[in-house]
Amino acid sequence: MALQELYTKYNRVWIPDSEQVWKSAEILKDFSPGDPTLHLQLEDGTVLQYPVEGPGQLPHLRNPDILVGENDLTALSYLHEPAVLHNLRVRFVDSRIIYTYCGIILVAVNPYKQLPIYGDGVIHAYSGQNMGDLDPHIFAVAEEAYKQMPIWEVH
After folding, report:
1. 77: domain range?
2. In this structure, are 78 and 42 located in the same domain?
3. Could you report the per-residue pLDDT of 37-59, keeping only the tens digit for each?
4. What is the reported pTM?
5. Same domain (yes/no): 57, 70
6. Does residue 20 lie in a domain region?
7. Would you say residue 25 has pLDDT above 90?
8. Domain of life here (predicted)?
9. Confidence class of residue 3 from pLDDT cuts 50, 70 and 90?
10. What share of the chain is helix, strand, coil (3-state, %, to 5)?
């Protein structure tokens, strides 16, 4: 399937914005190679013609709503700057979750305040668990690192 075939009516894209960095827009008309513009509608209802100079100039596709707020960025259909920033924003702003996985990497959003997520109860909850069994957390990464440590025998 050609990339242009994904730019069809009702699909959504991210377009650059000078104030918000990225804005979401819905495609109003199927895009065909050679079309000079992509017909879009922003979330505020504004209709615009987004200029397309070539296949490489098409805006980033937006992930389906079912994937919004995923706890592992590698589960997203489209992994690019606007998708990552949106997912982190949804997790942090809407759900107050500061940790997100990206495969075996832990991404943390600094809340600039103390959170009650480091007590003994949380330590015990992650103890002995596999990474991915529970929500992303620094304790899950630490537990995984501990389990993966080589055992050295002293002779």
Report:
1. 65-148
2. no
3. 999 999 999 999 999 986 678 99
4. 0.86
5. no
6. yes
7. yes
8. Eukaryota
9. low
10. 30, 25, 50
